[in-house]
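Hello everyone,

My group is preparing for a crystallization screen and wants a predicted model to guide construct design. The compound we'll soak is pyridoxal-5'-phosphate. Before spending weeks at the bench, it would help to have a computed complex in hand. I've included the protein sequence and the ligand's SMILES below. Output in structure-token form would be ideal because that's what our pipeline reads.
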Amino acid sequence: MRKHIFNAGPCKLSDRTLENTSKAILEFNNSGQSIFEVSHRGKDFQAVMDNTVELMKEVLNIPENYSVLFLGGGASLQFCMIPYNFMKKKAFYLDTGTWSTKAIAEAKLWGETVVVSSKDKGFTYIPKDFKVPSDVDYVHITTNNTIRGTEIFEDWSFDAPLIADMSSDILSRPVDFSKYVMVYGGAQKNMGPAGATFVIINNDYLSKVVDRPIPAMLKYSTHIDGGSMYNTPPVINIFAIRETLLWVKEMGGMVAMNKLADERAKMMYDTIDASKMFKSPVVKEDRSRMNIVFVFEDKYKELEAEFIAFAGSKNCVGLKGHRSVGGFRASTYNACTMDDVKALVSVMKEFEEKHA
Ligand SMILES: Cc1ncc(COP(=O)(O)O)c(C=O)c1O
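Reply:
Good plan to model first. Here are the tokens for the complex, ready for your pipeline.
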């Protein structure tokens, strides 16, 4: 029996993704070979790559003058590639949690970072009324903070070029990509399994690459010129991403994903807000729809392990908060169904009835 999976990434994927990827591992395109065994430069895999890029553009409504890349190295390598390629002197970073803090550390290797942070209140909100200096090379934001459970729901505009880490909210809502010069992330949440990184980059922005020696593997132009195949790409991940994109399309695309995300999050936050035992540490307007972070009221804190075990006994898994913050986190990505959410809500209510 499949469990109710609330892992933060790697996370639950659609049945279509799992079934068709498994089939391709056993035999790819009636070729008598596994997808693991064919050349990535053969026509069959090239067709998968081309189709995946096309589907990204179609499903996400990405403008023509943007390139879509699938790379290795995770979103974490992008933390380094972005300043390496685009930071001449100074960049603005919004610090909204662990991942943006890591991105800032990489940028500091290349120049001055101007940082606005929500660290003062434990990253429980998104800073909004801040000014970006006029002389920064770019602005970097993290649109969904996977660990702290905050989210930016709108596509912001600045005078400087905007770059966003959308690792954990890509494919959850329609995005106006024209507002960003680059959007990137690890694929291991709404897009597919761990092992591929997506980069959506405005081709015109490449003219802003800093004049410094950059190793080939760390240059965006290398990967654009090589069609994400300068080196051997993460083949099986790209196949699984294509299946996920086809599933998203079948389900009704971004409009449907957006609506389902609202429904899941509403049910979770309504339950938390009505509870005497659980509470959300995040300010209401910034609460993530992808990662629902919640904690016990202080007097129930010693019951944390018991709650996790109780949820597990009811087949709800992946609820432990990130090791750096504790508490609980239910990640409700696209493949998470209302049945999964209802199962968790009834576990929370039953536990509360017993203990509160
Ligand atoms: C928002 C965000 N950015 C970056 C990362 C790091 O991604 P990776 O492990 O692919 O380097 C994560 C990982 O969960 C994340 O949630």
